[in-house]
Amino acid sequence: MALWRAYQRALAAHPWKVQVLTAGSLMGLGDIISQQLVERRGLQEHQRGRTLTMVSLGCGFVDYPDALITNYYLWPAVQLANFYLVPLHYRLAVVQCVAVIWNSYLSWKAHRL
Questions:
Q1: Residue-range domain boundaries for the chain
Q2: First vs last Cα of the chain: how many Å apart?
Q3: Which of 10, 18, 49, 53 has the fewest CB atoms below 10 angstroms from its CB?
Q4: How far is CA 109 from CA 18, 20, 34, 61, 99, in A?
Q5: pLDDT digits over 29-59, tens only?
Q6: Res 26 pLDDT > 80
Q7: Per-residue three-class SS string for the chain
Q8: What pLDDT sits at residue 84?
């Protein structure tokens, strides 16, 4: 909980910087999950440049129609549930958790052979 409180303080003090770093971190985490859990590359075959590219993008658009369609199904449902069911102080955490899953999907979709 101390880490979460530190994050909230940093977010209040430097919202733009923290959000940019958060987005990049979530994209990188999504790529790591994609490579290690979905593609099962292992640490020796992990493409570090790919992860760095995803971190650098921070957020991005994958030009696949089904990814875009999935986006339009996923995020409205997440936000509807988030706004109606989740207390205010947990909403950011819910969105960030879903973002990690979404970024894993985008990374897998963008880099599958």
A1: 1-61, 63-112
A2: 40
A3: 49
A4: 27, 23, 9, 11, 15
A5: 988 998 999 889 988 999 898 888 888 777 5
A6: yes
A7: CHHHHHHHHHHHHCHHHHHHHHHHHHHHHHHHHHHHHHCCCCCCCCCHHHHHHHHHHCCCCCCCHHHHHHHHHHHHHHHHHHHHHCCHHHHHHHHHHHHHHHHHHHHHHHHCC
A8: 93
Locate tokens 């909230």: which residue?
8
Neighbours of 107 (CB within 10 A): 27
- pLDDT tens for 60-109 read 544 456 666 777 788 899 999 999 999 998 988 899 899 888 888 877 87
CA atoms of 6 and 43, how far apart (whole Å): 31
